[in-house]
Each structure stands twice: as structure tokens, then as C-alpha cells.
């Protein structure tokens, strides 16, 4: 009988960025090695919105994995009472539960149901234990919740799944007990074929202008304000360069970014592409001369990995978990999240074609060597088998 895995996540809406992109990749990597994978989530599609799918029954979902959606009862923490009831009845149908997120109702409900049923569970925190998240998003509430809810969830876990060493290190700083808990580092798989770029059209706009690409959720954590300021400096020397801001976000926040660009006097050189995926995303990567992600904090950095996999020379902030490794292998330029530093790196790449070519080639190699679906799938299966074996041994004694 194949290994049965249930992934539990608050939302798979692409509006939420990284976690919703990562889950299908993880699910597919395990499925390709023979695991039977299901996903349980809510019908959330962003604040006040819901996905139009059948509820409380399995339907084809991300990566083709059978997915069951439950109605969210509240916006806060995406509470879903029907999900909690279903989990209590069905977690014992699975060999292992893989929980994605903390500070979420679904995480609490899944962990509680799994403990009562004696089914081992793994927690992937999604970077919410890092310093930026704990200090900048509902700080006081999170301090209370970490002590009262999240730490018990983590203590009961068979393992904590981090996607990079940097994420693990920052989580250990959040509370001394976390550093002592069993953990593994398994990255997000990246599919180079999906991100492949036609080299005959890469790095050019239709009118042959060079493109600086930002491709991520528009959120303060991602540092878009920093890039707008850096772009203003760069444009003085390179007036033909275009900045493409690809991603969505809170309407008021996006409006403030647009106003910032207008006040800086560089708005006429910016294209606001909105949310892109699939062929549209591939087309943007093919247009890009340089990719820039100036995030203050990323527990992995899927957009950065996709850009490198596509061979786009990349400038990454030191807050991105995979960036230090990429820098060590000369696969990306590493910068601090400061406008002037970012501007210097952009100027350097715009004027040095040989460096752009080298970064593009090394970036693709770095992703292929470290984040292939086959390698990640093997690590996931090893983790699942290990926690199941540990659980069975505990029950036997």
C-alpha cells in the first residue's frame, strides 16, 4: 500500500504568494515517488473572497492532488469549523499529516486531531517564526499565541520542516525551546523545464529596452519601496531602462506604491503588470534583463529560485533564505535591503554583460543542482517514512 499523506493549509489561493505556489510543488514531488497525497484547505481567495469550487468533497486540486475545500467561517485566521470536524473524523485515514503554517486555525485543528488519533504530523512554519514576521505583524497577539498555542503544536510535531538553514536559525531565536525540537531542512522543488527561457528572445522588450523585473507579492516585507527608490537613481544614468512590477497586493498599498513612483518622478518608466502566472510569467522572465527581489525576509524565495532557474541574472537581498547559498556559488548578487546598495548592483549588471551571462548560467546550475523535484521528493519520502517508523515504535512500546 502506498504512503498516504494529507497536507493541511489555510489557503491555496495564489493571491497569498509563496505558500500557495510551494504546496503543489511539494505534493507533486512526493506523488511522483509513489505517495498518495491529499490536500485539505479552505475556500479562501483573499480577504472577503472565496474560490468557486465544490465544498466538503474531494475535487482535482493543485498539482492534480485530490483536494477538499471547506468554507471559512471567519476572515481572521481563516477559521473553518467544518474543516475541524472533518479532520477529527479522517486524520486516521492517513499515515502522516503535513501541516503548513502557524498562527492559523487549520494548523491548530490539524495538530489537535492528529495527536488524538495518534497520527504523526509535521509542521512547516512558512517563515512566520522569523524576526520580521514576529516584530512587524500583530506583534503582541503573536507573542501570546506563540507561548499558548504554537509552542504546544510544535512540541507535539514529529518534525519541523524548514525550507532553508536561515529559516531554521531565525526560528530558533523566536524561543529557546524551538532550537531543541527535531527539525529537517528540505527546500521547495523548482522545475527548471517550467521556467525555461528561449534564449533567442530572453532579456529584451519588444522595443529592445532593458528590463528590471520585480516578480512577487506587493507587500512591505518584499521591499518594493526600496526598489522604486533604487530605480529612480538608476534611471538618471540609464533612461531607457524599464521597471516591471509584477504582482498583486492590498489595493491601498499598491496605490501608495504608485504614488511613491509618481513623487519620485520615475512612474513613466514603470509597468504595473499585476498578478501573473503560467505563460505570462514565463514571458516576463523571458523579457527580463535583471531580476531584483529586495525582501526584508523570505523563508525560501520561490520567485528568486524561478528567476535563477530561467537564467535571469538576479540581485537578491540578504533576507532571502536561499540568497546566501546562491551568492557563495556566484549564482546571484547579494545585497543589503538599502536603495543605494540595490542601485549600485543594478548599475553593475547593466554595464557588465559578461557578469550578467555568468550569473545567468550559474543561477540555472545552482537551482538544477540543489532544488530538483526528484531530489526534494526523495528527501520528503525519507522524512515521512522516518516519522511513521518513530510513531509505530512509540505505539509498540
Main attributes of the structure:
14 strands; 8-stranded mixed beta sheet; Rossmann fold; alpha/beta; 397 residues; 6-stranded parallel beta sheet; 2 domains; 15 helices
Structure description:
This protein has two domains: about 5-190 and about 370-395, Glycogen Phosphorylase B (Rossmann fold, 3-Layer(aba) Sandwich); about 190-370, 3-Layer(aba) Sandwich (Rossmann fold). The chain contains 15 helices and 14 strands. The chain has helices at about 20-30, 80-90, 105-115, 130-135, 140-155, 165-175, 190-195, 225-235, 250-265, 280-285, 300-310, 325-330, 340-350, 355-370, 375-395, and strands spanning about 5-10, 35-40, 60, 65-70, 95-100, 120-125, 160, 185, 210-215, 240-245, 270-275, 290-295, 315, 335. The radius of gyration is 21 Å and the shape is globular.
SSE blueprint:
Layout: E1 4-8, H1 18-31, E2 36-42, E3 58-60, E4 66-70, H2 81-90, E5 96-100, H3 105-117, E6 121-124, H4 131-136, H5 139-156, E7 159-162, H6 165-174, E8 183-185, H7 192-195, E9 211-215, H8 224-237, E10 242-246, H9 251-264, E11 270-274, H10 278-287, E12 290-293, H11 302-309, E13 314-317, H12 323-328, E14 333-335, H13 339-351, H14 353-370, H15 373-396
Give the C-alpha Rg: 21 Å
Q: Which strand-content bin applies to the residues? A: 15-25%
Mean pLDDT score, rounded?
91
Main structural class: alpha/beta
What is the terminal-to-terminal distance? Answer: 24 Å
CATH topology of the largest domain: Rossmann fold
By CATH reckoning, the class of the largest domain would read: Alpha Beta
The tally of helices reads 15
Overall number of strands: 14
| Overall tally of domains | 2
Please name the fourth-level CATH homologous superfamily of the largest domain: Glycogen Phosphorylase B
Give the quaternary arrangement of the chains.
single chain
